[in-house]
Amino acid sequence: MNAATTGGDLDLRVAVIGGGLAGLAAATVLAERGAEVVLLEREPVLGGRLAAWPTKLATGETVRMERGFHAFFRHYANVRALLRRVDPELRRLVPLEDYPLLGPDGARESFSGLPTTTPWNVAEIVRRSPHFRLKDLARVDVGQALAMLTFDREATYARFDRATAKDYLDSLRFPEEARRMLFDVFAHSFFNPEEEMSAAELLMMFHFYFTGNPEGLVFDVLDDSFSTSFLDPLAAYLGGLGAEVRTGTAAARVTREGGELHVHLAREGRPLVVDALVLALPVPALKALHAASPALADPAFDLRVGRLDVTRPFAVWRLWLDRPLDPGREPFVGTTGLGRLDNVSLYHLFEAESRAWAARHGGSVVELHAYGVVGEPSDDALRAELLAGLHAIYPEARGAGVLDERWLVRRDCPAFAPGSDALRPTVATPWPDVALAGDLVRLPFPSALMERAVASGFLAANQLLALRGRAGEAVPTVPTRGLLAPARYWPPTRWVRSA
Ligand SMILES: Cc1cc2nc3c(=O)[nH]c(=O)nc-3n(C[C@H](O)[C@H](O)[C@H](O)COP(=O)(O)OP(=O)(O)OC[C@H]3O[C@@H](n4cnc5c(N)ncnc54)[C@H](O)[C@@H]3O)c2cc1C
């Protein structure tokens, strides 16, 4: 390897391309087991969609801006395992006890205090929801609704992957208001508009986040910026293991010379020479690297990568306001029926840096998100819509002055279109020495977003470690099947994949 690297004892040189959570997870497991690891990240900072970077505010302070609020759900066992590398007691996670959903005219649903077992959690949501009446229940298509309790990786995708999430939700015949409050926000949280999302993927999400999740739909947040609480310590941990972390370094092309893989860098003449590769890239970058790389050409793999796509853009707007909001406002709320506004986070209520800023200025730090934005609105139109939503739920924000703001619109989250499951790429590729990771990959068990990124990163590392006969990382999951999945699948199991 022509980069100064590790003192690994495994005789396995690996380039991990992409320094988001998936790449970081893979690099961690590989370096811990003695592989020589070089982690290549195109941007100046690690983290990908979880990245945080310094930015100077008009009020004089340098703070960290991020790609947006992230919820660390309690059942994210693999994310927690990664975080434990640098925070063994998980002290940096702050519990948020409720995850309310707010709608127009004071409409509200809450997911706190629910029983932790299915079907009692589902029954309690229906019982206490003001949006369900007994006569409404009689109209619900019970057969369709049961699909939420009978998740099975093969059967659910075979039956529902070609349908859209919208068609599935419509078919339930829930009262309109209940559908909006209970399901629309949920469906939107995966960045895919329900008209363009696979119903099977949505059912997997129900299972993963709710009916198959004994921890309940509540989550924690990091106590400070992602870089302070997680990414900087993890980079230091990797450095301590001898891994080389190269930010600001993009991979441009991969070739195979004899038994070795050559990773050609965008701005350097000499390639990195390695035994194995982890590709932990977002959809556009994976497609670009694949198209430029003779070593990654294979008809079946070409088809799978070619089918990947990004979903609609998302927008993140962080506002540093000159006044506090009313006491008792929640740190995070999902919203529905308020235009394209999907959620509101009050950073000064949980993030140390924002709390200090708010205390200094007598203000507040508010972040507004819109996911799966359809209709290509102009930035001004979208901002007006988000602000109107904020004012509808928190009227005291109306007269607030904006001391500074950051506005991001990006389009790099994976699409989960109807019919996309069968050809979605997996961690394994046609080559045993090349593994894929990221929240875009097809996993054999329920998982999503950050947890999917980390679980796939661990699995990618395990695949490469197996080349040298070395055991990998255990990868726990929620129960893989729904409570009422057909009897032949009984009982639901918690998989642990150690390699
Ligand atoms: C606004 C927002 C809110 C979210 N909220 C949540 C949440 O609450 N809970 C949750 O679980 N998930 C959430 N997510 C999703 C979560 O961020 C992602 O699932 C996860 O971070 C994906 O990680 P990844 O490693 O797969 O991909 P990425 O984070 O995209 O990492 C890929 C990396 O590859 C790098 N790269 C690209 N090209 C090259 C190249 N040629 N060479 C080298 N490096 C390259 C990129 O710069 C990037 O760092 C949210 C996402 C967004 C955008």
Verbal overview:
By secondary structure, the chain is an alpha+beta fold. Among the domains are: 13-48 and 227-307 and 423-497, FAD/NAD(P)-binding domain; 115-211, Guanine Nucleotide Dissociation Inhibitor, domain 1, CATH 1.10.405. The protein contains 15 helices and 22 strands. Helix 1 links the parallel strand 1 (13-17) and strand 2. Helix 1 (21-32) runs parallel beside helix 10, helix 1 packs parallel to helix 15 (449-466) and helix 2 crosses helix 15 (449-466). The chain is globular. Mean pLDDT is 91; it is low at 1-7 and 488-499. It binds flavin-adenine dinucleotide (FAD). Flavin-adenine dinucleotide (FAD) is lined by residues 17-23, 40-43, 48-50, 67-68, 70-71, 250-251, 280-282, 285, 289, 314, 316, 369, 413, 438-439, 449-450, 453.
Strand content: 15-25%
The beta-strand count equals 22
* Unreliable segments of 5+ consecutive residues: 1-7, 488-499
CATH topology of the domain at 13-48 and 227-307 and 423-497: FAD/NAD(P)-binding domain
Report the bound ligands by name, code or SMILES: flavin-adenine dinucleotide
CATH architectural grouping of the domain at 13-48 and 227-307 and 423-497: 3-Layer(bba) Sandwich
Quick recap:
The protein has 499 residues and is α+β, with helices and mostly antiparallel strands.
Fold topology:
Elements (H helix, E strand, L loop, with lengths): L12 E5 L3 H12 L3 E5 L11 E5 L5 E5 L5 E2 L3 H8 L8 E4 L4 E2 L5 E2 L10 H9 L5 H6 L2 H4 L7 H8 L4 H7 L4 H13 L10 H13 L7 E4 L3 H15 L3 E3 L4 E7 L2 E6 L6 E3 L1 E4 L3 H10 L6 H9 L6 E8 L10 E4 L7 E4 L5 H10 L2 E7 L8 H15 L8 E9 L23 E3 L12 H18 L8 E5 L14 E4 L2
Parallel strand pairs: 1-2, 1-14, 2-10, 7-16, 14-20
Antiparallel strand pairs: 3-4, 5-9, 6-9, 7-8, 11-12, 12-13, 15-18, 15-19, 16-17, 17-18, 21-22
Helix pairs in contact: 1-10, 1-15, 2-15, 6-9, 7-9
